[in-house]
Amino acid sequence: MAEITTPRELFLHELGDILYVEEQLANEVLPKLINEVKHDEFRTSLENHLEETRRHIENVEQVFSSLGESAKTEECVGFEGLKKEKEELTGKVSETMIDAVNAGAAARTEHYEIAAYTGLIEKARALGEQDVVSLLDENLKEEKEALRQVESVEKTLRDEIKAGAV
Predict the structure, then answer these.
(1) Mind listing the pLDDT tens digit for each residue in 4-24?
(2) Overall domain count for the chain
(3) pTM of the model
(4) Cβ atoms of 86 and 105 closer than 8 Å
(5) In a domain, 1, yes or no
(6) Domain assignment of residue 154, given as a range
(7) Which of 21, 26, 69, 139 lies 20 to 30 Å from 146, alpha-carbon distance?
């Protein structure tokens, strides 16, 4: 990676970082989770978020285009760590706990994305790139709603575990 020396270069790097995350989610992570989960509400939420994630990719690509740049991913080490942690934990729990592990991993990922989009919006404003803020904000709002849905699923799963239904 070349040295980052300007705020714009940092913004573009972080934009590539979130593009990497969204592409990994759309092409690998969410389809795998959809196949793993047993809880119907959780599966439906993940299926809906997969469609949103595909729109997020389009929005981020449009941001690059609006800035006169080619869309370029930057490997996201933080996200790779989240994936690795989820995989390791999945290998340590019983089958009945897989949905709880996946819900926790989904919540952590949503928090990561919310932080990333919040930072991107602030950097875009600071750079005077107000025209791209609405696309980033659209993604941020959907990530916040996805987190709300995951938290609802987590609560349901906790209640089922407490009741001995899992």
Answers:
(1) 999 999 999 999 999 999 999
(2) 1
(3) 0.93
(4) yes
(5) no
(6) 7-163
(7) 69
